[in-house]
Specification:
The structure is a single chain. The protein has two domains: 117 residues, HUPs (Rossmann fold); 118 residues, Glutamyl-tRNA Synthetase, domain 3. It is built from eleven helices and ten strands. Strands 1-2-3 form a three-stranded parallel beta sheet. The protein has a three-stranded antiparallel beta sheet with strand order 4-5-8. A two-stranded antiparallel sheet has the order 6-7. α8 links the parallel β9 and β10. α7 packs across α8. The termini are far apart. The model has no long low-confidence stretch (mean pLDDT 92). The protein binds glutamic acid. The site of glutamic acid has 7 residues, from loops.
């Protein structure tokens, strides 16, 4: 059976762009006699708030969407993500990175032929002694995925990774993201790790989301290969823009579903994008 999901983060109120993504995911499931799950991606416990989560349920119900319960809330499952990280550690595919943001940017600037602001990993791996000293002094760190280690681990398979996007086969190129952070010392996971794990756990067959996440899919595909997880089909839809082609973001407060609803806009008009942009612009 076809199974999609809509996976918002309760770090703000849903806006028009979310309504579009939800409509695409729930619509795809409905057209294919499948189901669409709702997943709450709230690993960032400082930015995510219960009132935003409550508003997600209310807004989506108002738009007429239904989903199976119970809903998976990622903050209830940190232990699952830590066990994935432990497996990656055991395979030698992640390393502790103690560098500050500033130091990472300096490393990027120093690297030759690197025009894309990508961190390709340290020049020298920290010795056990250096790492021990940093840990003993309680330095914060992040766990980064080592692309070099992944390349040796997968051998030729690294070069031939691909995924289906909007009906076409795309070559996955994790190098375009570099050594991404898979967990922070304090949080224990990241979007990449939690999302890819949950898509596998929840048997998601089709992932429908905005094109802003297409870049991340290259890393997700790599994680799937390493962990032996199934590979869903992807559909990345264009982001909604206003009459001037400007993209919506959470900062456009007036275009939250909560506000539009309070102003009397109907769910049908929201889904059909029949909004008077000028009137609702902040
Ligand atoms: N939680 C992510 C977001 O709100 C979306 C995750 C996904 O669809 O993969 O941007």
């Amino acid at each position: 059976m076809i199974r999609t999901r809509f996976a918002p983060s309760p770090s703000g109120y849903l806006h028009l762009g979310h309504a579009e993504s939800a409509a695409q995911a729930f619509g795809f499931a409905r057209e294919n006699q499948g189901e669409c799950l709702l997943r709450i991606e709230d690993i960032d416990t400082t930015r995510c708030k219960p009132e935003f989560e409550t508003a997600i349920y209310e807004n989506l119900q108002w738009l007429g969407f239904h989903w199976p319960t119970p809903v998976r809330r990622q903050s209830d499952h940190f232990a699952d993500y830590i066990s994935v990280l432990t497996r990656l550690r055991d395979m030698g595919l992640v390393y502790r990175c103690f560098k500050t943001r500033k130091e990472i940017l300096e490393d990027i600037a120093r690297a030759p032929h690197n025009h894309d602001n990508i961190y390709m990993g340290p020049k020298h791996i920290l010795s056990a002694k250096q790492e021990g000293t940093l840990l003993a002094s309680n330095q914060p760190y992040a766990w980064r995925l080592s692309l070099q280690a992944c390349r040796s681990f997968l051998g030729e398979r690294y070069q031939t990774l691909s995924f289906m996007n909007n009906g076409e086969t795309i070559k996955a190129n994790p190098d375009t993201l570099g050594d991404v952070i898979l967990a922070r010392k304090d949080v224990g996971t990241s979007y990449h790790l939690a999302c890819t794990h949950d898509d596998a756990l929840q048997n998601i067959t089709h992932i429908i989301r905005g094109v802003d996440l297409l870049g991340s899919t290259h890393i997700h595909r790599l994680l799937q290969e390493i962990m032996g997880w199934p590979v869903p089909e992807y559909h990345h839809h264009p982001l909604l823009t206003d009459e001037n082609g400007k993209r919506y973001a959470k900062r456009d407060k007036a275009l939250t579903l909560k506000t539009l609803r309070a102003q009397g806009v109907s769910p049908g008009n929201v889904l059909a994008h029949k909004i008077n942009w000028k009137k609702h612009e902040s």
